[in-house]
Specification:
The protein has 175 residues and is mostly helical. Among the domains are: 32 residues, no CATH class; 89 residues, no CATH class. The chain has 8 helices and no strands. It is extended and about 75 Å long. The termini are far apart. The chain binds zinc ion (ZN).
């Protein structure tokens, strides 16, 4: 049975001797080994992506005691924190995997759609519609209404938002 299966794999359906099967098996093994070796060589020799920062920052990032930053608002937080103390985004390594804390993470993500300025690409907007439907089910139209109301507000770029909130500038200077 094993020989028949191998013969079918080799494209031969009958009349194969044991030595022919052995040669075929060796050929397949050599090809597989060469493929794995080529893949490994390609992987290890691939050029590294350069970091957008300098060597000093790379060395700081490699330290165990470096301060983690929230990916949403860039505020520093404790290493053991589950949520950002500034904006409420999930920052823990396993927060989204834990059943109860995950609910707060989902809530934070959905609130971004209804109350914050976000990148308004068709993919992101469709994602909010689908995510709202999967989380709220029959009550999703209520979420969609608030989402559309937020989308109708004029979008402002993060740069202008940052300029408006910077302490050194008055509102008349930033306009
Ligand atoms: Zn944050």
């Amino acid at each position: 049975m094993k020989h028949e299966m191998l013969a079918i794999c080799l494209g031969q359906t009958g009349g194969m001797t044991n030595s022919e099967l052995l040669v075929g098996l060796l050929g397949i093994s050599v090809l597989c080994g060469y493929g794995c070796w080529t893949l490994a060589r390609w992987f290890w020799n691939a050029p590294c992506q350069p970091d957008p920062w300098g060597k000093e920052i790379s060395a700081e990032l490699a330290k165990d005691d470096c301060t983690p930053l929230c990916p949403h608002c860039l505020s520093p937080h404790q290493l053991s924190a589950e949520f950002c103390p500034q904006c409420g985004a999930a920052v823990g390594a396993y927060t989204n995997w834990l059943p109860f804390p995950r609910l707060f993470s989902v809530g934070h993500t959905l609130r971004i759609g209804t109350g914050e300025n976000f990148k308004r690409s068709p993919l992101v907007i469709a994602g909010f519609f689908i995510f709202g439907f999967t989380e709220y089910g029959p009550f999703a139209p209520v979420y969609w209404f608030k989402l559309i109301r937020n989308l109708r507000k004029p979008a402002c770029s993060p740069t202008s938002e940052h300029l408006e909130s910077s302490p050194g500038k008055s509102s008349s200077e930033s306009v």
